[in-house]
Design a protein that fits this description.
With 159 residues, this protein is of the alpha+beta class. The protein is 32% helix and 23% strand. The longest helix has 18 residues.
Length: 159
Amino acid sequence: MNSRSSRDFLQQGIVAVPVAAVVGASTRSALAQTPAKREVVSGVLDLPFSRAVKYGGLIHVSGVMGNKPGSLEMASADFEPQCRQTLENLKASVEAAGATMASVLKCTCFLTDAADFETMNKVYKTFFPTSPPARSTVVVKALVLPGGKIEIDCVACVA
């Protein structure tokens, strides 16, 4: 993309959605009144990191993969079911921290194969059907669990 087409792209179709349209009044109120207190959400497995950390009205959710809940075994060797399980695991972590998928502000997705991008988008849309969060997608050489094809972390608002 050259500089002119980049500029044209940036000038077209960018719509700012006010926070009020995405986040309800109770969440806005909680964000305004939440003291900067760090709260750890522990996970179900004994791992050397927190499932999520709540701080200052935000929830930082650790990366999750498509493993079966309570184990390190992948739910499937195939990408689509693994992607769906990854998003189910993300949803469980967000909810364990007291929020909903509608309060997710930003996701970072890590794929081991760029060819899975379209499938990820298809599954992702079922978890974020309207007003999806901001997102980055990065292709990586490998993930930490054997057979893992996708990992997602996120930041959400305290509900």
